[in-house]
Model the fold of this input.
Amino acid sequence: QLQLVESGGGLVQPGQSLRLSCAASGFTLDYYAIAWFHQAPGKEREGVICISSADSSTAFADSVKGRFTISRDNAKNTVYLQMSSLKPEDTAVYYCASKRDPCRPRGRLYPHWGQGTQVTVSS
Done:
């Protein structure tokens, strides 16, 4: 059974860093584009960043450029989202999702999703 599981969320102060993990089971991440989305309370889900099967990354949201990076460890079948200089407006539930290449910001194009992990940035 194909499954994605996010972990690493939590409560951090503004300016701190956090690394989220997206672990896959039931399939090999190597051949897929993996994207991170977030959804803040009362807002629509938004694409954040994506990594292709060729390890090319694309930031969908201007607000995260220069602060968020995405990487994959194929040996661990896991994709990571490294978030730095976190801001209160980064507070959201973060989801990872997979699809065949290429990366796209529209969530509807991704057939497989994790359950999400909460990130809260607050002093």
